[in-house]
What does this fold into?
Amino acid sequence: MMRRDECLKVLARHHTDQIVIPVYQAAFEWRTIKPEALTYLGTGAMGQASSHGLGMALGRPDKRVIVIDGDGSLLMNLGSLVTIAEAAPPNLVHFVCQNNTYEANGFHPIPGANKVSFAGFARAAGIERVYEFDELADFDQRIGAVLAETGPVFVVLKVVAGESYPQDWSVIHSSTLRQQFGEAFTKS
It folds into this structure.
């Protein structure tokens, strides 16, 4: 198993000007690890990260879009995988941090914890480029090539919680950050 924050630090080393959509705990971690104006904070819309990512990928085909989703969040909107496969945006990379819990809601287990295959869901939906990582060294070695692939790309990160990051909900829901994102999204 990998720590989620360590995975995000690896991803941050490969991040340039991509749009990033992290949810819940990953949003707090990403804001600390790689604060950028092109980070869309959709926290509070559980299950909608994949749909937001699809919309942004279609709306800005010139920009790479990276979704950092949670397993519990994706379970709320599995149908989005079929829509993503059908639309086939070449600029979308969808990460799912699988820790088998609703972490933001007190670490309650997700339905089917340790039984469901998120990679299997993605393949069954028609997404062709699907990866799973549970070793940080392997992820670190291969992520550059994975990010360079034509999307949609779906990546499962088998993770555990990392170190504790500040959880300031007023920052996550900040109208200032939303305005900064909107400005960066339209002019970059």
In short: The domain at 2-187 is CATH 3.40.50.970 (Rossmann fold).
